């Protein structure tokens, strides 16, 4: 697996949480290089007030449970599985209190060559995160640096703990961001700020990230996970079919011109009139009752 697999090295104890029902073993993953942990499995189970949020956690070889450690293979596999699972409405991706993710494993990259990067298509594995059709919420506590910041930006919504720090420090390593840092960041915060962050390697605070629109909400660190789950649950009350169409439409804003995007949005809006859930949503409003969506 490419070095980017180590993006969650050291401090990143990543947890995938899902709005869903069925407990399942999502994927097996290899050990973190510097965590020294024994965690071997990513598992998903059910949590949340309405018991409709599935929580991923890890299980050690000793049988104890703890938050997931940097699974690269695990995340890609879990995302693929969640995409197929109709009971999953939304996904929460998080880390430890110290770090969401500190970036690709620098020590492992030291000896890499240009030809290895080209031939191994280094960093390409992560396109899976941005391709996921279901909403992904990044719950960022602590550091989101380099590939960690890029991973957060591949998600759909970023909630930040009040001590979170975002940055693209690759310049100090003699390289540049390679998984969207110069592209997604620029689109979100604008050229001047993106340039400042990428050229200096300086970090920004959670509060600044919110001000810039990089994060949509800042909450006390110890409430971050609960808030992210609450958000996933709220998304999960809507039609997952329409949520998917809506996500696709918002993402189109990043991929095309305004005119093309508006055309796409209008046609998608029209397309919702062919769904049972559009009919149910409007009928329920008119009848002053909660909608009973069937995702059809
Ligand atoms: N790769 C490898 N090891 C890392 C690491 C990384 N990205 N980040 C931290 N570590 C290791 C440290 O080397 C240290 O290991 P030892 O205990 O063996 O010495 C351990 O994690 C703890 O780190 P610190 O002692 O530095 O802890 P700190 O609290 O003082 O600082 C930090 C934390 C600010 C995250 C700091 O470690 C740091 O700046 N890390 C590097 C961040 C970085 O440059 N990320 C970009 C990587 S390149 C990339 O991601 C490219 C891309 O676009 C995909």
Automatic annotation (TrEMBL):
In the UniProt record, does the keyword Nucleotidyltransferase occur?
A: no
In this chain, the stretch annotated as Disordered covers 48-70
Q: Which GO terms describe its biological process?
A: fatty acid beta-oxidation; valine metabolic process
The record, for InterPro entries, names: ClpP/crotonase-like_dom_sf, Enoyl-CoA_hyd/isom_CS, Enoyl-CoA_hydra/iso, Enoyl-CoA_hydra_C
User: What segments bear the compositional bias annotation Basic and acidic residues?
Assistant: 48-59
Q: What GO molecular functions are on record for this protein?
A: enoyl-CoA hydratase activity
Per UniProt, the keywords (alphabetical) are: Fatty acid metabolism, Lipid metabolism, Lyase
Top-level EC class as recorded in UniProt: lyase
Q: Which family does it belong to?
A: Belongs to the enoyl-CoA hydratase/isomerase family.
**Name this polypeptide is given:** Probable enoyl-CoA hydratase, mitochondrial
Task: Tell me the gene name.
Answer: Dper\GL16995
């Amino acid at each position: 697996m490419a070095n980017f697999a180590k993006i969650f090295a050291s401090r990143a104890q990543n947890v995938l949480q899902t709005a869903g029902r069925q407990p399942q073993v999502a994927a097996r993953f290899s050990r973190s290089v510097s965590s020294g942990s024994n965690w071997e499995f990513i598992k998903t189970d059910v949590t949340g007030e309405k018991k409709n949020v599935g929580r991923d956690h890890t299980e050690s070889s000793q049988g104890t449970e703890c938050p997931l450690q940097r699974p690269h293979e695990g995340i890609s596999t879990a995302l693929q599985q969640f995409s197929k699972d109709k009971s999953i409405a939304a996904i929460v991706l998080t880390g430890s209190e110290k770090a969401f993710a500190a970036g690709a494993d620098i020590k492992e990259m030291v000896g890499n060559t240009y030809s290895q990067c080209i031939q191994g298509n280094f960093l390409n594995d992560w396109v899976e995160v941005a391709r996921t059709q279901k909403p992904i919420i990044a719950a960022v506590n602590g550091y989101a640096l380099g590939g960690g910041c890029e991973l957060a930006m591949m998600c759909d919504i970023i909630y930040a703990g009040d001590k979170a720090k975002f940055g693209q420090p690759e310049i100090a390593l003699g390289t540049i961001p390679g998984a969207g840092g110069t592209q997604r960041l620029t689109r979100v915060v604008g050229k001047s700020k993106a340039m400042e962050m990428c050229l200096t390697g300086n970090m920004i605070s959670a509060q600044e990230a919110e001000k810039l629109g990089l994060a949509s909400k800042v909450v006390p660190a110890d409430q971050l996970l609960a808030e992210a789950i609450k958000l996933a649950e709220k998304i999960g009350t809507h039609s997952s079919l329409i949520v998917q169409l809506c996500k696709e439409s918002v993402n189109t804003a990043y991929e095309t011109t305004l005119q093309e995007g508006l055309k796409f949005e209008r046609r998608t809006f029209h397309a919702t009139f062919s769904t049972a859930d559009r009919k149910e949503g409007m009928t329920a409003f008119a009848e002053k009752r909660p909608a009973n969506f069937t995702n059809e």
